[in-house]
Design goal:
Layout: H1 4-9, E1 14-16, E2 23-28, E3 37-42, E4 48-51, E5 57-60, E6 68-73, E7 79-84, E8 88-93, E9 99-104, E10 109-114, E11 120-125, E12 130-134, H2 135-142, E13 151-152, E14 158-160, E15 167-173, E16 178-183, E17 187-193, E18 199-208, E19 211-214, E20 220-225, E21 228-233, E22 238-244, E23 249-255, E24 260-265, E25 270-274, E26 292-297, E27 303-308, E28 313-317
Parallel strand pairs: 9-13
Antiparallel strand pairs: 1-28, 2-3, 3-4, 4-5, 6-7, 7-8, 8-9, 10-11, 11-12, 12-14, 15-16, 16-17, 17-18, 19-20, 20-21, 21-22, 23-24, 24-25, 26-27, 27-28
Length: about 325
């Protein structure tokens, strides 16, 4: 029988069901007048939108015929972009759920990201290419298309080449002037100049980076590679802090407001740590029945979510510091 102190520190999260296969990506929207939203990607090919606080299901974005590896919302949470193993990325109306456009690729698409202003979309994947699409041009072109013909070979405005293996994650940084990317089979982070397509600099890591998070103010990058969780300064591109975990961590998220970071990986637990000391706060979050593939803090820092191989999403309350 658990002691009373153990019972007090053991947290019971909200458990969100609905996916039939592993969760591979989670992302929160920014805070909007209608609330904050959580979008999830799964190998079942059905990205889902939820209320970030309650975890209640809002809708499912239908249309992919393969695993969905990534999903993201634009700043006002009016549109959703998804990346899939069916060799496509899709753009959805996040309010109605309608698919607005399908971007055909020649291989698996692993990552998508809107620019800050929402007028551009980047994709990356097994072709080892980061593509930039101009959504304003897409909107103009759609006026001349048959309403039902929403799938086309859309030409990107530019292509960034030179990655040594498939693109795992790509994210806009520095007011959309730069693009940060990681590869599935090689270490390091590559910083591309979005205007010239040239790799401006490389951030060295010990292992392949499995998770990239850009802070809400754009000043910090959080990465996970092997047992390392690293916080980078965007201004200097130097690591501010690296925390060494006991297990390989697939994902990590830092909340500057709370001074905490959360990470999850192969040990199936969710860990919250104090940024200043690196010490774990409270008991680890237990309950997942498979590796934790993704973790993210909510924008207000009061809760965080985790997605696992077991196909569930769990929403946890951020613990208070010891003492």
């Amino acid at each position: 029988m658990a002691s009373s102190s153990q019972t007090q520190t053991q947290q019971v999260p909200l458990v969100c069901h609905g996916h039939s296969r592993p969760i591979v990506s989670l992302e929160y929207s920014k805070e909007t007048p209608d609330g904050t939203f959580l979008v999830s990607s799964s190998k079942d090919g059905k990205p889902m939108l939820r209320d970030a606080q309650s975890g209640d299901w809002i809708g499912t974005f239908e249309g992919h015929r393969g695993a969905c590896w990534d999903a993201t919302l634009n700043a006002p949470a009016t549109h959703c972009a998804t990346a899939s193993a069916d060799f496509s990325a899709k753009l959805f109306n996040a309010i109605t759920g309608d698919c607005l456009h399908t971007f055909a690729h020649k291989h698996i698409v692993k990552t998508v990201c809107f620019s800050t202003c929402g007028t551009k979309l980047i994709t990356g994947g097994s072709e080892k290419v980061v593509r930039i699409f101009d959504l304003r041009k897409l909107e103009l072109d759609s006026k001349n298309k048959d309403k039902d013909n929403i799938t086309s070979v859309t030409q990107p405005m530019s292509e960034l080449t030179g990655a040594p293996s498939q693109i795992k994650t790509a994210r806009y940084i520095c007011n959309d002037e730069l693009i940060l990317s990681s590869c599935s089979d090689n270490p390091d982070l590559r910083v591309w100049d979005a205007r010239t397509g040239i790799i401006a600099t490389t951030l060295k890591t010990e292992n392949a980076v499995t998770s990239i998070e850009i802070s809400e103010d754009g000043k910090y990058i959080t990465t996970a590679d092997g047992k390392n969780v690293t916080l980078w300064d965007v201004g200097s591109f130097r690591p501010m802090e690296t925390w060494k975990m006991k297990y390989n961590m697939e994902s990590a998220s830092v909340c500057m407001k709370e001074g905490k970071f959360v990470c999850g990986g192969e040990d199936m637990w969710v860990h919250v740590h104090d940024c200043a000391s690196g010490e774990e706060i409270g008991e680890p979050g237990k309950g997942h029945h498979g590796p934790v593939h993704c973790v993210r803090f909510a924008p207000d820092g009061k809760s965080y979510s985790s997605g696992s191989e077991d196909g569930t999403i769990r929403i946890w309350q951020t613990p208070a510091k010891k003492g």
